[in-house]
Amino acid sequence: MIVGIGVDVVDVARFEATLVRTPALRGRLFTAAESALATESLAARFAAKEAVAKALGAPPGLRHLDAEVLTGEHGRPELRVTGKVADVALALGVVRWHVSLTHDGGVAIAYVIAEG
Q1: Domains identified in the chain, total number
Q2: What is the pLDDT of residue 80?
Q3: Are 37 and 43 in contact (CB under 8 A)?
Q4: Domain boundaries, position 21
Q5: How far apart are CA 112 and CA 95, in angstroms?
Q6: Binding-site residues, please?
Q7: 24, HSE (Cβ side, Cα atoms, 13 Å)
Q8: Which residues belong to the annotated binding site for Mg(2+)?
Q9: Is residue 71 very low, low, confident or very high in pLDDT (cuts 50, 70, 90)?
């Protein structure tokens, strides 16, 4: 059963300009492992974190660091949730996450499905 679906689109150039203008933002949005990635990948991961919030109904108190996008087997994106994100997901009955990321033509897009 699908508990929630989220999608988000990020303009890569605008996202990069924001990271340059506010360097501390990188540490508030991304884990150490994520931070080392190229801008396009960061934009896609940011979109995924926003899509996670949407899939959960955007409750207050969620932190971007509580949703980490990992690279799984064969390059497939996977989610690791902790903290408030994990608590909300558990309360909603989420047992599995599905994530799709893409970036091309200056935009990054992420789809997230929370499955119960």
Answers
A1: 1
A2: 97
A3: no
A4: 2-115
A5: 13
A6: 8, 50
A7: 0
A8: 8, 50
A9: very high
What is the rounded average pLDDT of the residues 63-82? 95
pLDDT of residue 12: 98
Quickly state the pLDDT bin for 59 (edges 50, 70, 90). very high
pTM exceeds 0.90: yes
Q: How many residues does the chain have?
A: 116
Contact 2, 95 (CB under 8 A): no
CATH value at residue 60: 3.90.470.20
> In the structure, what pLDDT confidence band is assigned to residue 47 with cuts at 50, 70 and 90?
very high
Token pair 């091309």: residue: 104
Helices of type H across the chain: 12-21, 25-29, 32-35, 39-55, 83-92
Q: Are 48 and 103 in contact (CB under 8 A)?
A: no
Burial of 21-60, coded b for 16+ CB within 10 Å and e otherwise, reads eeeeeeeebbbeebeeeeebbbbbbbbbbbbbbebbeeee
